[in-house]
UniProtKB/TrEMBL annotation:
Protein name according to UniProt: Histidine decarboxylase
Keyword field: Decarboxylase, Lyase
Annotated family: Belongs to the group II decarboxylase family.
Top-level lineage group: Bacteria
Transmembrane domains' residue ranges: none
Entry GO MF terms: carboxy-lyase activity
Region entry Disordered, spans: 1-45
Origin species: Kitasatospora indigofera
Keyword rRNA processing among UniProt keywords: no
Entry annotated with the keyword Kinase: no
Length: 575
């Protein structure tokens, strides 16, 4: 397994029309505008070089413009530390470059070839089968088996996966026709609330304050109500959480609080959802008759935290049982012939796992924890179950599978040159597409119409190149590097007499610390987050950045960053 993009041309791959990418080594000559070894960021390429005149550009100018972009990206790629995207593409660019000659489009459902034949759906299905097995879903996909998985390769990243999950859950929970309903027509029929419960088809969404901003966007776009919105509007004085002393009753928080840290506030907590607070909030809305949608994080955006999906399921199940959310009759329409109501039995809750980063490595971490001798590594602390395999006993309905959907980004853990990912659910939750266009020759079950057919090739190639053992080694390296960086930051604090606030959530592959100068932020593509140590008190504001220990990061890069931090004027000024 090669860790960088350094490519050697394998024998028999002598294709003159495919250029291997520039090697990612320290020996790479400095590109124009690149400031290797200094804190100065490489400049963005000159916009003038990219202006498009009516007559187009001659080859010389066109190629010079492209070279300048390549030089810029190469420099930035070598220094990317602040985002959870690997820059390691393996040899994929070389082997897959040939597919750039095709217009590939995976239009429509992945399990039907459809009318647009230049597609890679056969590869897409192989990738989905791989993740279905890793995430303990029943495969292969079988439209006649409600328990089997269904999913697709996303054209966006987990933002699309989260949005699809919310859409899927909203329609399922609000009583719209399922894909399997015999009378499902081309239009949605929303269930009318029964006389006894006006909230029966009004789902409420719960997610923690450490959740990615894509969720706030998704609820907005899809018109899903959060517990905050419903609570503030309908029950302004009834928030059941314990508020700060003196605030009686407390205001509804915008999101479910995360676990508090030693300070008693959440800024220095692990970033995991506060399961007690979640349970209290869910109980309140379940008692009012609302269906419940919960999204949990596996590798949260800033702290890399893993919500304990199993613990959440165990805590919420009795609440769901108490309030009749395990199963309910849903009238989703009327039989066009008889006018009789069409009904089915559905569960009234949905647990989604936003595994944008973590769903890529968590299965391998769990494999190593279960067989340390076999994989040659004992991870520090385990990672609880998080996937479709979580099954819990109920009093009335036997064993219940708890997780309804998972989203993962392809460009984060596996690695891809552009955003992509996976959305997965089960056939029994699939909703009927809003329209059935004959035009594409396949059911329009996905979010986008035209879909990226290149991404399945990228993901497939990555999976084919890496054994389970390789993946265990990748997550092991990431965790070891995270521990190394945290240690070195502590040492740097002592050496320089500066406060860097290093912190790492146990098991996370990210380390956070004090934000350095803008030059270093730009040089290393560091993303930042502000926190208030005391909520509401501006004087306690702190700015953090973080480093994600992706497979394209090595000790040499970290040592270069540490050397930069040791000389950083902004940090030294605060010594
Ligand atoms: C936890 C989490 N969810 C969702 C996303 C959005 O993923 P994408 O950038 O692939 O759309 C991210 C991105 O960082 C994330 O960290």
């Amino acid at each position: 397994m090669s860790r960088t993009d350094t490519l050697t041309v394998p024998a028999g791959h002598d294709r003159p029309d495919v250029r291997p990418p520039a090697p990612d080594t320290a020996a790479l000559p400095a590109a124009p505008g690149e400031a290797v070894g200094t804190a100065g960021p490489a400049e963005e390429p000159d916009a003038l070089a990219f202006e498009l005149p009516a007559g187009g550009l001659d080859d010389d100018r066109r190629l010079r413009a492209l070279d300048s972009m390549d030089a810029y990206l190469t420099s930035k790629r070598r220094h990317l530390l602040g985002y959870q995207a690997t820059q390691e593409m393996g040899g994929g660019a070389f082997d897959l470059g040939r597919f750039m000659h095709h217009n590939i489009n995976n239009l429509g459902d992945p399990f039907r070839s459809g009318g647009y034949k230049p597609n890679t759906k056969v590869v897409e299905r192989a990738v989905l089968d791989y993740y279905a097995a890793l995430w303990h879903a029943k495969g292969p996909y079988d439209p006649a088996d409600p328990e089997s998985y269904w999913g697709y390769v996303l054209s966006m990243g987990s933002t699309e996966g989260n949005m699809y999950a919310l859409w899927n859950a909203r329609d399922y929970l609000s009583g719209k026709a399922l894909i399997q309903s015999p009378a499902a027509g081309p239009h949605y029929v929303r269930a009318a609330p029964g006389a006894g419960n006006p909230n029966a088809y009004r789902p409420v969404a719960f997610y923690s304050e450490d959740t990615h901003y894509s969720f706030a966007k998704a609820v907005h776009v899809l018109g899903v109500e959060t517990f905050h919105a419903v609570g503030t509007e309908q029950y302004p004085d009834e928030c059941p959480l314990a508020g700060p002393a003196g605030e009686q009753p407390p205001a509804w928080p915008a999101e479910v609080p995360s676990r508090r840290g030693p300070s008693g506030h959440t800024w220095d907590g692990t970033g995991e959802i506060d399961v007690d607070a979640l349970a209290v909030l869910v109980e309140f809305f379940a008692a009012k008759g609302h269906p419940v949608f919960v999204s949990l994080n596996l590798g949260s955006t800033f702290k890399g935290a893993h919500d304990d999906v199993r613990e959440v399921c165990e805590r919420l199940l009795p609440i769901f049982e108490r309030h009749g959310l395990i199963q309910g009759e849903v009238a989703y329409g009327k039989d066009p012939g008889t006018g009789e109501p069409l009904t089915d039995l559905r569960r009234r809750f949905w647990i989604h796992v936003d595994g944008a980063l973590g769903a890529g490595y968590a299965p391998f971490l769990r494999m190593a924890a279960a067989d340390p001798a076999g994989f040659g590594w004992t991870p520090d602390g385990g990672l609880p179950e998080f996937d479709f395999g979580i099954t819990l006993p109920t009093r009335e309905f036997g064993d219940l599978d708890m997780v309804s959907s998972i989203a993962m980004s392809g460009h984060k853990w596996p690695g891809a040159p552009w955003p992509c990912g996976i959305y997965m659910t089960k056939v029994k939750y699939q909703i009927s597409p809003p329209s059935q266009p004959e035009y594409i020759g396949a059911p329009d079950t996905t979010f986008a119409g035209s879909r990226n057919g290149f991404s399945p090739l990228i993901l497939w190639d990555h999976l084919a190149r890496h054994s389970y053992q390789d993946q265990v080694d990748r997550i092991r390296r990431a965790q070891e590097l995270a521990a190394y960086l945290e240690r070195q930051l502590h040492l740097l604090e002592q050496e320089k007499g500066i406060e860097l606030w290093p912190a790492r959530t146990p098991g996370a592959i990210t380390v956070r610390f004090r934000k350095p100068s803008p030059e270093l932020v730009a040089k290393w593509s560091l993303s930042s987050q502000e926190v208030l140590l005391v909520p509401g008190d501006e004087r306690t504001r702190r700015s953090y950045v973080h480093v994600f220990l992706m497979s394209s990061v090595d000790r040499a890069k970290l040592d270069e960053l540490l050397a930069d931090l040791a000389e950083d004027h902004a940090l030294l000024a605060r010594a």
